[in-house]
Amino acid sequence: MGRLNGRTAIITGGARGIGAAMARLFTAEGASVVIGDILREEGEALAAELGPAARFQPLDVTAAEDWSAAVATAEEAYGPVSVLVNNAGIVDFATIGEQSPEAFRRVLDINLYGAWLGMHAALPSLRRAGGGAVVNVSSTAGLMGYANLGAYTASKWGLRGLTKSAALEMAADGVRVCSVHPGPIATPMTAGLDPAMVATQPIARFGEPEEVARMALFVVADATFSTGCEFVVDGGATTGSPLPVEAPEE
Ligand code: NAD
């Protein structure tokens, strides 16, 4: 018996990385999944691999008409949406001084506005499903600051805040809304990063996409008394300073 039997899920950015791991795990647990992404080839290949319980839907999360089509596709194929995972995201490494205004806005558009648009578009379907769960994939950058990642950090703090407003508003509809905060995870997004960046974490390695997917599954299937809160999956990266504090000399 799968833990998501009978559930219809939309996972954005589901063609690769963390989203793809979620699509694999959610279908294995009995859900029907619409993989929404701008990467058609990867998305279609993944849907073919997963079989009839998954289908790819071209979805740019910043386009309202794409969201209408994604929700309609999900409903027609599998029934009302009871799981929405706003996972699509981009990163742009640049200082505040060097980043272009257009690049800043693009990050906010996809990472924050895209998630708002997703909840806005899916809410009627979540209501028709009689309730459900929304998982907003934020980051440790939604819990602390990072240099050279101002736009990304702002977008992920914004998503964490939006999650709380949504949780308050949607409780009456039986919809729980939580944020998930991964630390460094081995995906195409982090492929070029220096492995030394994880050396001082309590769990000193990159996380696997499946480890984030299992956290999202927990939020959807098990965390029935949790809404509006943060689930951290970061190898302890946000736990504190790894530098030992020496007693001052007398
Ligand atoms: P990834 O780059 O491997 O995957 C992101 C997916 O989002 C891609 O399939 C991409 O095509 C899709 N996407 C981008 N723009 C889109 C748009 N406009 N519409 C629809 N889809 C779009 O990255 P990932 O590491 O799997 O990241 C997934 C999420 O996890 C992101 O929100 C990211 O910010 C977050 N996150 C990742 C890490 C990490 O270390 N990898 C850490 C913290 C948070």
Describe the model.
This protein has helices at 17-28, 40-50, 64-78, 101-128, 150-170, 209-222, and strands at 8-12, 32-37, 54-58, 83-86, 132-137, 175-182, 230-233. With 250 residues, the chain is α/β, with parallel strands linked by helices. Strands 3-2-1-4-5-6-7 form a 7-stranded parallel sheet, sandwiched between helices. Helix 1 crosses helix 6, helix 3 packs parallel to helix 4 and helix 4 (101-128) packs parallel to helix 5. It is globular, with a radius of gyration of 18 Å. Bound molecules: nicotinamide-adenine-dinucleotide. The site of nicotinamide-adenine-dinucleotide (NAD) has 28 residues, from helix 1.
Detail the topology: elements first, then pairings:
Blueprint lengths: L7 E5 L4 H12 L3 E6 L2 H11 L3 E5 L5 H15 L4 E4 L14 H28 L3 E6 L12 H21 L4 E8 L26 H14 L7 E4 L17
Parallel strand pairs: 1-2, 1-4, 2-3, 4-5, 5-6, 6-7
Helix pairs in contact: 1-6, 3-4, 4-5
Bound molecules: nicotinamide-adenine-dinucleotide (NAD).
